[in-house]
Amino acid sequence: MRRLFEQPVARVGVNLRPRRGSWGGANQWTSQITRWFEYHRWGVRFDLSDRVDAILMTHTGLSKDTSFGVDEVEAFKRRNPGVPCIHRINDNDIRKNSGEMDAFLARSNRVADHTVFVSEWLRDYHAERWFDRSRPHSVIIPGADPRYFHPVGAVRWDGRSPLVFVTHHWSDNWNKGFDVYRDMDELFAGSLRGKFELWVVGRWPGEIIWKAARTFPPASGRELATILRGAHAYVSASRFEPGAMHVAEGLQCGLPLLYHPDSGGTVGQGRAYGMEIGGGLKESVEAFAARWAEFRQRVLADPPSGSRMAASYFHLVQRLVADA
Asked: Longest C-alpha distance within the chain, in Å?
């Protein structure tokens, strides 16, 4: 009887093994869903060499970080045709100025019984190119680990001291918004000195010589969350983001969001929790400061949630397995 109880409810195969440290949003995703499935007594494995009751397939770009892909899933489903495959899509070509990702995702999606997009914007992007909206799909936005990314202990702006914006990126690609951050730094070192500050965490292009910005090396988890809670607002000028985990991390720390209008999936979050950079940058940051308290109440009322994200994947997989 004890042995029967210890058997997992079901088994899910995930093609991205969690890693410790700063490995970006996909690693946060797989770490959180793995814990969630295991908490609910599901078995999780990272290959298809043994029985699984569902497959959860994602991609971290055209790399070898994943433990299996569409070919392995296709072979597995030939032997086990009733096993559902959920395909998580979190990328595109326009974000990286590449020419292979959209076709790669379309090719991989042929084995999917259900597709999950990380934002409505990304779904619409791929629907204009190859995805058929009539196929089963969901939108599940990213959420960060709530054990670290939460608003408890966050610094509250008093309206008199400088309003501190923070941003963080693992990549030094200019598309991450460094043109805007550089312009903010110029403003905050010049006409807006003493009114605003900028903190930059992670990496940035080597051509940038910061004039007033406070910089931090790459950080993750508890260390990163502590830095974020020391600021008052988050800024993301990253272009064409499918569904950015760095934005979720800032929002979950209680930081209202200033965002670029070409931020892709971030725009949906920004409308709920802040405002876009429109017109002049100087006018935008001043207008944002005037509404900071309003935006902060919005983000505290209903922030993104890693728990909600993980639960959404769990309930989707559970439903498909029960219905198989």
From this structure: 73
Residues 264-303: tens digit of each pLDDT = 999 988 899 999 999 899 999 999 999 999 999 999 999 9
Burial level of 322, CB count in 10 A (0-12/13-18/19+)?
exposed
Helix (H, G, I), strand (E, B), or coil: what is residue 17? coil
Q: Give the chain's length.
A: 324
User: Which uninterrupted H or E stretch holds 251?
Assistant: helix 245-252
- Contacts with 114 (C-beta within 8 Å, 6 or more apart), sequence order: 84, 85, 86, 87, 136, 137, 138, 316, 320
Amino acid at 55: I
- In the block, tokens 């988050």 appear at 234
Distance CA 310, CA 19 (A): 17
Q: Please name the amino acid found at residue 100.
A: E
pTM above 0.90, yes or no: yes
DSSP state, residue 239: T
Side chain identity, residue 102: D
Q: Where are the beta strands (DSSP E) in the chain?
A: 11-14, 43-45, 54-57, 85-89, 114-117, 137-139, 163-169, 196-202, 214-216, 233-236, 257-259, 274-276
Strands ordered across the beta sheet of 257-259: 214-216, 196-202, 163-169, 233-236, 257-259, 274-276
Through-space distance between the first and last CA atoms of the chain, rounded to whole angstroms = 27
